[in-house]
């Protein structure tokens, strides 16, 4: 798929446990789904063409010593679409793409997980926003609603990384500031080797402007103090 500045390949995965549709946005010519060519029961040639099975070329061999960059990003409608100043999610998504694209040879993937509001869904997230209007922070708001501070899980991301051929000795470079995400993806039994953790900062002009607002400053401070983020 062509974009304004680069070419990407978009892979869609449906989680059979909850039917959520997650995405893998791959950059460069090297990372491709390994399962897409597998024949599905009862499918026709037309079905295969429509889902991209026969048109997608296999990833080219990549012999660089540097592991691919990986960003596991959770959906954020308010931060990515409605320009919320209560988070830096939209800026982090853009920064991840920029970091991958500016590599000497672009080689990476953004896994886009459909777990809005740190896993509680958009409706509950908007209720949490109403509580934040009353002075509660993002963690307190979730807990008042009966949810943990972070209800996300990363099993789908691990499975996607395996399908993309990124579970191996070469390992990955994970773009994150979240130690819990690091443990969930690179922990024992996942088969994912994290060679390097790359801090992802919100460096866009819009983010720098927002960081002067009390809301985003409070949000980032809460993530650091209460959730252990490295900022």
TrEMBL record:
Give an example GO biological process: riboflavin biosynthetic process
The organism's superkingdom is given as Eukaryota
The protein's matches in InterPro entries, at most eight in alphabetical order, are given as: GTP_cyclohydro_II, RibA, RibA-like_sf
- UniProt keyword annotations, A-Z: GTP-binding, Hydrolase, Nucleotide-binding, Riboflavin biosynthesis
Q: Which Pfam families match?
A: GTP_cyclohydro2 (PF00925)
Documented EC number(s) = 3.5.4.25
Q: What Gene Ontology molecular-function terms does this entry list?
A: GTP binding; GTP cyclohydrolase II activity
What are the residue boundaries of the GTP cyclohydrolase II domain, all occurrences included? 10-196
Substrates-to-products reaction catalysed? GTP + 4 H2O = 2,5-diamino-6-hydroxy-4-(5-phosphoribosylamino)-pyrimidine + formate + 2 phosphate + 3 H(+)
**Pathway entry:** Cofactor biosynthesis; riboflavin biosynthesis
In the record, the note on similarity to other proteins reads: Belongs to the GTP cyclohydrolase II family.
Query: What's this protein's name?
Result: GTP cyclohydrolase II
């Amino acid at each position: 798929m062509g974009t304004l500045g680069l070419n990407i390949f978009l892979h869609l995965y449906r989680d059979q446990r909850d039917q959520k549709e997650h995405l893998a946005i791959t950059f460069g010519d090297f990372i491709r789904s390994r399962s897409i060519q597998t024949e599905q029961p009862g499918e026709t040639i037309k079905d295969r063409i429509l889902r991209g099975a026969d048109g997608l070329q296999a990833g080219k061999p990549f012999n660089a010593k540097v592991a691919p960059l990986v960003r596991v990003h959770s959906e954020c409608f308010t931060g990515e679409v409605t320009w919320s100043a209560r988070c830096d999610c939209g800026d982090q998504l853009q920064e991840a793409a920029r970091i991958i694209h500016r590599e000497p040879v672009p080689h990476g993937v953004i896994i886009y997980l459909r777990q809005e509001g740190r896993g509680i869904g958009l409706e509950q997230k908007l209720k949490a926003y109403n509580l934040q209007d009353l002075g509660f922070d993002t963690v307190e708001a979730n807990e008042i609603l009966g949810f943990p501070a972070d209800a996300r899980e990363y099993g789908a991301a691990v499975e996607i990384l395996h399908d993309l051929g990124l579970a191996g000795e070469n390992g990955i470079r994970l773009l994150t500031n979240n130690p819990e995400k690091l443990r969930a993806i690179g922990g024992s039994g996942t088969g994912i080797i994290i060679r390097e953790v790359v801090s992802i900062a919100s460096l866009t002009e819009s983010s720098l402007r927002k960081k002067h607002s009390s809301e985003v400053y409070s949000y980032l401070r809460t993530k650091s103090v209460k959730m252990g983020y490295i900022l």
